[in-house]
Structure formats: structure tokens, C-alpha cells
Amino acid sequence: MTAPAKPPASAKRSSARRLTQKISTTFVDATAKPKLSTEDRRALELDTLAAILPMDRRDVLATLLTDDDVATLKHLANEGIGDNSLRALASDLAYLEAWSLAATGGPLTWPAPEALALKFVAHHLWDPEKREADAAHGMPAEVEEVLRAKGHLRSFGPHAPATVKRRLAHWGTLHRWRGLDGRGSWCFTADASYRA
């Protein structure tokens, strides 16, 4: 009696490969990270700043801020910026991003062009008397409606010059922290805002 022929080595390897594939599709890898949406991932990143940033704002910030924005805020927290300063910076950055989305249809660009900074000033520092005569003066109604509907704009009328100057200063500071020219040609608008 002859011994049965052994299957070739390649057949053993292919059957082992099929078994491995079957097992890997049958069982869930316990070490695999779940797939998260971009906003959920940002929210988890912002959780690391929970001691500084208010938790009720986390989800709003996650929808407004970009990955680079969150990375910048985390870097600042690690560098030891004061809690109140970081909260103010995050709040102003969230407002700037919300305004940019409403006014331009896209997030802030880095580096920001001078025209965008001037548009920000024009939308926030305007003459109430001129607005009565010309509805197009100041912030366009559709931009204002979007910001109000999302809870970013609560005041009526032009912003205080100090608020606009602070937001522009934070915008310039964020340029520097991102390694961009924070003293670009548009930084004069912070000084011009007081004259407006």
C-alpha cells in the first residue's frame, strides 16, 4: 500500500492564508481604534484641555476649529499660557472661524490676506446712522443671521473697538504661533479699528 501523496507546500500556505482571513473577518480586533468623525476626533482632542476650556463649548469648538487650531491650543496649554488667556484666545478663534464661514463660506486662511482682515473690520465697526440709510453698510444681513442663529453674535449694532482690536490681536498672535508672519501688512487694522 502506498502512502497518500502530501499536498504541496503552496497549498498549505494558501489554506492557512484563507483561515487567517476568515478569522480576521469573523473576530473584531480588540486593539483597533474605532473610526471617528473629524468633529468627534477634535472633541476628544479638546477634552485634553477640559480643565481650561468649558465642556459645554467643546462640541461647538469641535465643529468650528480646524485640526491645526486645536493643535495650536494644545501647544499653548503645554507651554504654560494662563488659563484665562487660553480661554479668551479659544473663544476669539472660534468667533473668527464662525465669522469666516458665514462671510466667505470657508474657514480662516493662514496666512490671512489683508483683504480678509479689512472685511472683518468693516463687518464689525460701522456707523449706525449710515446703516439706517444704507442696509448694505456694515455686516451683511445674511452673515449676521447665520452668526445669530448659531449663537455667535449676541450684540446688536457695531462691536466695541476694543473687542475688534483684541480679536485682531489674537488673530495676529495665532499667525506667529503657527510660524507665519504675525506682523503682516494687515496688522495695521488693529490700530485703524480705534480710529473707525
TrEMBL record:
Protein origin, superkingdom: Bacteria
InterPro entries linked to this entry: Integrase_recombinase_N (IPR010998)
Alphabetized UniProt keyword annotations: DNA-binding
GO MF term list: DNA binding
Listed name of the protein: Integrase
Lineage: Bacteria, Pseudomonadati, Pseudomonadota, Alphaproteobacteria, Hyphomicrobiales
